[in-house]
């Protein structure tokens, strides 16, 4: 049997390296040909199930400690006990996968901020967004509908990477407040990674559960609609969870007084959504300049 008969007569141009190859795999880089089945809901469900069933004992142990013992994973990582737990970035990326799967089901836009949110639900820089959009439309000679679709597709992709910006931002805050206890910036980055792993769990699992309960109680048409209606209440709940978790976390990691940990945690929780809007501004700027 010839190679062509074995692989199949069809060819495809590899999107990664541009090589034309027979069969289903690129002969240069090994990229697999994308088929219709790869875009199906069943494929994504299979991927999620495979992720959950192959998430090893380290991952499940780390998840348990992440939720039940704030700061414990950070302390273990910083003192050199790493074999029994998932690496901080690996844990964050794994939870990030679950988070983006969750928002794809419930149409939340906390970090994947569509153009309509930037334009019409923006209390910080709406005029700047409007001017930048108008300038882009005039320069590119494109109508708004096409631009919005193009923008939303690009910002959806970029948000999956730019969410990592929260780690250095919060690491810098922790370093400024606790550098005498933890003199290395990387130590604070570990704490920031574990904090944001917990926050993503809240947004991926707890907030949708609250939305489902409110949707059933209020007879709302969708979770996104009910969360928009109860936005202030849900925001206060999130800030409260972050404040309590962060206070316990900082107390364990930095070993400072309870009142200082509580004060810092309340301050950071209070300004949490301002930091989110800083991220959204960076996301808007980078998305617009990448089109």
Report on the structure:
The chain has 14 helices and 2 strands, in the order H-E-E-H-H-H-H-H-H-H-H-H-H-H-H-H. The protein is an all-alpha fold and 291 residues long. It has 2 domains: 32 residues, no CATH class; 250 residues, no CATH class. The protein has a two-stranded antiparallel sheet with strand order 1-2. A hairpin with a 6-residue loop joins strand 1 and strand 2. Helix 5 packs parallel to helix 10 and helix 8 packs across helix 14. The N and C termini lie far apart (48 Å). 25% of the residues are buried.
The H-and-E topology, N to C, reads as HEEHHHHHHHHHHHHH
- According to DSSP, the number of beta strands is 2
Report, as a whole number of angstroms, the end-to-end distance. Answer: 48 Å
Radius of gyration: 22 Å
Order of neighbouring strands in the sheet with most strands: 1-2
Helix content: over 70%
Mean pLDDT: 83
Main sheet properties: 2 strands, antiparallel
Structural domains: how many: 2
Q: What's the helix count?
A: 14
Strand content: under 5%
What is the overall shape?
Answer: globular
Uncertain residue segments: 1-9
- Class derived from helix and strand content: mainly alpha
Q: Could you list some keywords that capture this structure?
A:
291 residues, mainly alpha, two-stranded antiparallel ribbon, 14 helices
């Amino acid at each position: 049997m010839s190679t062509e008969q074995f692989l199949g007569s069809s060819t495809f141009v590899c999107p990664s390296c541009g090589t034309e190859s027979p069969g289903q795999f690129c002969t240069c880089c090994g990229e697999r040909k994308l088929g219709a089945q790869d875009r199906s809901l069943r494929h994504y469900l299979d991927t999620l199930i495979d992720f959950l069933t192959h998430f090893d004992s380290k991952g499940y142990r780390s998840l348990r400690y992440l939720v039940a013992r704030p700061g414990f994973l950070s302390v273990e990582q910083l003192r050199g006990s790493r074999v029994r737990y998932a690496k901080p970035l690996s844990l964050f990326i794994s939870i990030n996968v679950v988070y983006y799967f969750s928002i794809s089901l419930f149409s939340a836009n906390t970090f994947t901020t569509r153009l309509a949110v930037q334009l019409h639900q923006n209390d910080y820089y709406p005029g700047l967004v409007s001017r930048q959009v108008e300038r882009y439309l005039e320069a590119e000679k494109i109508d708004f509908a096409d631009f919005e679709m193009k923008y939303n597709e690009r910002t959806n992709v970029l948000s999956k990477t730019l969410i990592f910006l929260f780690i250095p931002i919060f690491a810098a805050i922790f370093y400024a407040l606790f550098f005498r206890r933890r003199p290395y910036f990387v130590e604070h980055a570990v704490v920031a990674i574990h904090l944001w792993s917990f926050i993503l769990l809240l947004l991926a699992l707890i907030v949708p559960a609250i939305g489902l309960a409110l949707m059933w109680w209020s007879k709302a048409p969708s979770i996104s609609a009910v969360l928009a209606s109860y936005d202030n209440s849900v925001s206060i709940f999130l800030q409260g969870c972050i404040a309590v978790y962060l206070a316990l976390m900082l107390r364990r990691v930095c070993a400072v007084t309870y009142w200082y940990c509580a004060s810092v945690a309340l301050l950071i929780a209070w300004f949490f959504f301002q930091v989110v809007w800083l991220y959204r501004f960076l996301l808007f700027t980078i998305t617009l300049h990448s089109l």
